[in-house]
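Bug #77: duplicate submission created two jobs. Keeping one. Sequence:
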Amino acid sequence: MVDSFAPETITFAVGIAFLAGVVRGITGFGGALVMAPPLALLVGAQVAVPVILLLEGVAATPMVWQTRSLVRWRVIGPIIGAVCVTAPVGGYLLLVVEPQVMRRVIAAIVVGFSILLLHGWRYTGPQRAVTAIGVGSLSGVLVGATSMGGPPKILYLLAGPDRAETTRANLTYCIAASSLAGAIANWWGGLVSLTTLVAVLVLAPGYYGGVAAGSRLFARFDDQRFRRFTLVLLIAISTIILVI
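Kept job's structure:
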C-alpha cells in the first residue's frame, strides 16, 4: 500500500481512517464498518482486511483493561472460542475469493447489518451456549474474511439482561478477541507482510487521532441521532461501492 500507491491514495486512506476513528470514538462501534468498504475499493480487500484488524485490535486494548472487572466470561466464552476456531475459514475465503467479488461482499455485509442496526433489530431468543457458539462461528468467518465480525455479536449481546456497562465490556472483549483471531488467521495465510505493518503505522495516527477526537465530541452529540446518521451514511457509501 505504502510503496505501491500514489501519495493521493495514501492521503485518502488516512482520511478514511480518521473518519472511522471519529465514528468509533463517538458511537463506540463502527471503525471497521466505516473503513472496510472504501479501503477495500482503494487498496484491495487482501490489504485492507489485515490492516483494519490490526488497527482495531490495538484500539481495543485500553478498554480491555478498563472493563476487565465487568466481563461475564460465561456469556462471552463460547463466542470467543467459536471465533478462534472459525476465523481461519474466513482468512481462507479472503485468499481464494476473487478481489472484486470480495469487495462487493464486504459492501453488502455493511449494508445488511447497518439496516438491521438502524431498525433496532435484536436477537430475541434465549442466550444459550449453542446460540452463542453459532454467533461466534459466524463472527469468526466474517472477521477473517472481511474484518467485520462485530455486528452479529452486537445484535446478540444487546438482547441480553445485563446492564449497559456489562454489555459494553462483553462487546469490548469479544471484538478485541475477534480482531486478534482474525489477524492471526490472516498472518497464517500470508496476508500480513512488512507492507501491511508499514500501512498500519501510516494509518494509525489518523485512526487513533479520530478516536480521541470522537471521544471528546461524544458529550456534544445526541448519541442515538449520530448513530442513525452514521448508519445511513454507511448504507449510502456501501451501496455505491456495491454497484461500481
